[in-house]
Amino acid sequence: MNAHHTPPVAALELDNVGFIHRGHALLKPTSLRLAGCQRTLIMGPNGAGKSLLMRLAHGLLTPTSGTVRWQGKPPAQAMVFQRPVLLRRSALDNLTYVLAIHKISRQNRKTQAINALDKFGLAHLAKRPARVLSGGEQQRLALARAWLLNPQVLFLDEPTSALDPAAIKAVEDAVLEFHHSGTRIVMTTHDLHQARRLANDVLFMHNGALLEHTPANDFFTAPTSHEAAAFIRGELVW
Amino acid sequence: MPTSENAFSTALALILSMDSALISIVTLSLQVSLMAVLIASLLALPLGAALALWHFPGRNAVIVALNALMGLPPVVAGLCVYLLLSRAGPLGEWGLLFTPSAMVIAQVILVLPIIAALTRQQVEALHGEYAEQLNSLGLSRRRMIPTLLWDARFGLLTVILAGFGRASAEVGAVMIVGGNIDGVTRVMTTSIVLETSKGNLPMALGLGIILLALVTMINAIAHMIGETAKRRLG
Amino acid sequence: MNKTTTLITASVCTTALAWSASLLADDDFITLASTTSTENSGLFDAIIPTFTEATGIDVRVVAVGTGQAFEIGRRGDADSLLVHDTAGEAQFVADGYATERLDVMYNDFVIVGPSDDPAGISHSETVIDAMQRIAKSESPFASRGDDSGTNRAELRLWEDAGITPQGEWYRELGSGMGPTLNTAAGMDAYAMTDRATWVAFDNPQNLTLLFEGDEALFNQYGSLLLSAERHPHLKHDLAAQWHQWLVSEQGQQAIADFEVDGQPLFFPNAE
Asked: Among A168, A184, B39, C238, which is least packed, fewest CB within 10 Å?
């Protein structure tokens, strides 16, 4: 069902978006535009505001100033979290659940869900309770769930930070698979190597401010801010 | 004084005799309390979940009131229902006083706050964990309710059992609105009061042992169902 | 999940069915508000089957204190009343809640107390003397204190004895007859009880019957026919049959035939 999305994905525009919580400006007024079918990685040290920016873009949070808007019809979106939130049911039921929400007929739910499990190498775990799966399996299940939502934009918030290398590889492959089928990727990471492997577009944040928005090649070869330069050199930045 | 041995042998003799009066008392007790818990659950589970999800002015007052009502003395609940259902009361037309239905109504009032208040706590905790994911899936709060209730089911089973415990143990309310009529509204707890007032303490204690055994059995069954499901579903 | 759902649905349906069946059961019954003394002694178990056999009417007994029985009658929550407070019953008729009151039977009150009888009431000639001895020796006395017929009768006796009962020794329990006897047994106190409850009482411990027989202790029971004008919804026809049956030859005989341990407890005295 994940056919190529023929119409271009609507561009996302953030216009002077800021977020203040209890008097602290966690995100300073930020403007940016995400268009096309990019793999955008949001980078920066912990506490830079990466996850916050992503939640504002996805609509989980409402900015305290500025506006978030889609140019045109808001696209289908999904988000994968750092720690996957899985329901207390079997792996299969976690998938049929989202299909039920989207009013897929009962007969089709199971077929689609099993296909998705198969695609992410989880078919043999279909009947297992989702919450007893390993961290890597849980994250793949979360990706399978996102897959069924057929998103035009996929947000991922540090999806591999708690995983071992094999599991990281599986998640990264899945991300590329999404992108290949025409999904725009917006992902946070503080792992420089992962960014080099996945990004073709980079947002660099520091202390609640967006310092750079450049194509990946430019970013890794010639960062404009000295914080980004230090970050790329592997120095401790905070 | 009845020795405990005395009470145990009375209880045993009662059970072994399969006395039809005893069976009808036990059956009615279970019918009334289970029906009350069922009705209270149907109302209180969504109510508790809604309280967990919606923030409105006066919400805290509602929560405090529910928590306080968990301690409502059964006699007070019974008295209120009596005044409602009495012929001279607003619902007197229904002619429900001194019937099992009146007992169910009184017990619903006793059980509902417990289930609603504890459901609110459980669902609020679970919502803290699920909120972002469910929002991301585009669920409205109303549509989150069934998901949260189902995923909190093991905790809620205990909540419902707490409600059942209160219903099956109370005597103040059913005594007033049921009238302890032999063969019609006589349940375990009112029988125990009656036998105590006759000074037939071994019989009273024997009935108490049977009641305790029944409640233990129901709790054990629920516990087993819960554990099996938990092992299966993690 | 499906198995659980099926199980729950099945049990709900069963319960609901059993329920409606029990509610649809015959409508040929009356609700009688009466006193704990009559119920606890087993009198109703003995006489109601005879009445039901003769008339096809079942009698559902709500056993409460006389004060509460009057309240149930006033509110129209019972079809008939059988209580023991002649003055209160007369007032009830005067207030228009009942159209007729009939003497049905009597039993008597007795005074029980610890077997060593510290106040020495077993030597008393009259109940007045017995009450005075208890008060003078300040021996513990357990009173119902619940505005029941027995409680009202007890208070009238104190008044006749010229005593205002108060002090450490006089304990108002606010309980029914049975609980009062349980408490009296527990604290070795005197208590006034109707004979029926006493004879049927199984937990006397150190209590024993110390004084009986004074005519002032007779305890008259009356049946009240409730006013159809005030409570038109009640089952007056059925209640009237019960009311008449109690004073009929058959009813009076049934009361006389009722014995506990070979001892008659109620004495029919309808006119």
From this structure: B39
Assess whether pLDDT exceeds 60 at residue C180: yes
The pLDDT value given to residue A5: 47
Give yes or no for residue C15 having a pLDDT over 70: no
Q: How confident is the model at residue B180 (pLDDT cuts 50, 70, 90)?
A: very high
Residues of C with Cβ-Cβ distance to B184 under 8 angstroms = 60
List of chain A residues with pLDDT < 50:
1-5
Tens digit of each residue's pLDDT (9 = 90 or more) over A60-92: 999 999 999 999 889 999 999 999 999 999 999
Determine whether the interchain pair A98/B137 forms a contact, defined as Cβ–Cβ distance below 8 Å: yes
Dihedral-angle region of residue A132 (phi above 0 means left; psi in -120 to 50 means alpha; beta otherwise): alpha
Sequence-ordered alpha helix ranges (H) in chain B: 4-17, 20-53, 59-69, 74-85, 100-136, 141-151, 153-169, 172-178, 188-197, 201-233
For the segment B54-65, what is each residue's pLDDT rounded down to a tens digit?
Answer: 999 999 999 999
Q: Which residues of C touch B92 (CB under 8 A)?
A: 76
- Which pTM value belongs to this model? 0.85
Cβ proximity of C173 and B170 under 8 Å: no
Q: Which of residues 168-227 of C touch B (CB under 8 A)?
A: 176-179, 181-182, 185, 200-205
Q: How many CB pairs under 8 A join A and B?
A: 44
Which chain C residues are Cβ-neighbours of B196 within 8 angstroms? 178-179, 182
Rg (CA), chain A: 18
Say if the Cβ atoms of B86 and C76 lie within 8 Å.
yes
A126 close to B (CB below 8 A): no
Strand duo A201-206 + A39-43: pairing: parallel
Type of residue numbered B95: G
The pLDDT of residue B171 is: 94
pLDDT band at residue C26 using 50, 70 and 90 as cut-offs:
low
pLDDT over threshold 60, residue B2: no
CB-defined contacts B:C, below 8 A: 82
Residue B192, min C-alpha distance to chain C (Å): 12
**Confidence at residue B5, expressed as pLDDT on a 0 to 100 scale:** 65
The partner residues of C58 in beta bridges, in order of sequence, read C29
SS3 sequence of chain C: CHHHHHHHHHHHHHHHHHHHHHHHCCCCEEEEEEEHHHHHHCHHHHHHHHHHHHHCCEEEEEEECHHHHHHHHHHCCCCEEEECCHHHHHHHHHCCCEEEEEEEEEEEEEEEEECCCCCCHHHCCCHHHHHHHHHHHCCCEEECCCCCHHHHHHHHHHHHCCCCCCCCCEEECCCCHHHHHHHHHHHCCEEEEEHHHHHHCCCCCCEEEEECCCHHHEEEEEEEEECCCCCCCCCHHHHHHHHHHHHCHHHHHHHHHCEECCEECCEECCC
A94 within 8 A of A113, measured Cβ to Cβ:
no
Tell me chain C's radius of gyration from C-alpha atoms: 22
For residue A213, the surrounding DSSP H or E stretch is strand A209-215
User: Please, is B220 exposed, middle or buried when counting C-beta atoms within 10 Å of its C-beta (0-12, 13-18, 19+)?
Assistant: exposed
| Nearest-angstrom CA–CA distance, C85 and C78 | 18
Give the per-residue pLDDT at A28. Answer: 95
Helix (H) or strand (E) holding A215: strand A209-215
Region C129-152: mean pLDDT is: 93
Interface contact B151, partner A, CB < 8 A:
yes
